[in-house]
Specification:
- With about 150 residues, the protein is of the alpha/beta class.
- It has a domain of about 80 residues: Cupredoxins -  blue copper proteins (Immunoglobulin-like), CATH 2.60.40.420.
- It is about 15% helix and about 30% strand.
- The strands form two sheets. The chain has a four-stranded mixed beta sheet, with no helix packed on it. Strands 3-8-7-5 form a four-stranded mixed beta sheet, with no helix packed on it.
- A hairpin with a 2-residue loop joins strand 1 and strand 2.
- The protein starts with a helix and ends with a strand.
């Protein structure tokens, strides 16, 4: 029996060696390929013509505000009702109505004395902003000075 076990072990060992030997067998080398020439590069495209930069124009550019403004007050109200001026500009109100005029404004920027028909009063605006005013004698007569 000893020989029988030894025979089986040798047989298994032989089969194992045979299997390992077959596994290590190298694959046949691939046939050599002929060298392939690299394709020629395509010609570079011609550069597009370069246009000189266009002058930037602000389409919404506002004209400079005037250095002075004038408002005429009549029995129907202020004309114009809105005046735009530059910082440092003076606005003159002329009373062309049949009644006195007393202008008031909530921030007290507009300094006004009571003006009788035919008189003028003026205010110089030193800060940018919107100044809404009214005739305190006829409160529904309103106007606005926009200082830019």
């Amino acid at each position: 029996m000893n020989f029988k076990k030894l025979g089986i072990v040798l047989l298994v060992l032989a089969m194992l060696i045979f299997a390992v030997g077959c596994a290590k067998k190298a694959a046949p080398p691939a046939p050599a390929q002929e060298p392939v020439a690299a394709p020629e590069p395509a010609p570079a495209p011609e550069p597009a013509p370069v246009e000189p930069p266009k002058e930037v124009v602000d389409e919404e550019a506002k004209p400079a505000a005037p250095a002075a403004g004038s408002v005429k007050y009549s029995d129907t109200g202020f004309d114009p009702a809105e005046v735009k001026v530059a910082v440092g500009a003076t606005v003159t109100w002329e009373n062309a109505a049949k009644v006195p005029l007393l202008i008031t404004e909530k921030t007290k920027t507009i300094v006004s004395k009571r003006t009788v028909p035919g008189e003028k009063t003026e205010t110089t605006f030193t800060k940018a902003g919107t100044y809404e005013y009214l005739n305190i004698i006829k409160a529904n007569h309103k106007g606005k000075v926009i200082v830019e």
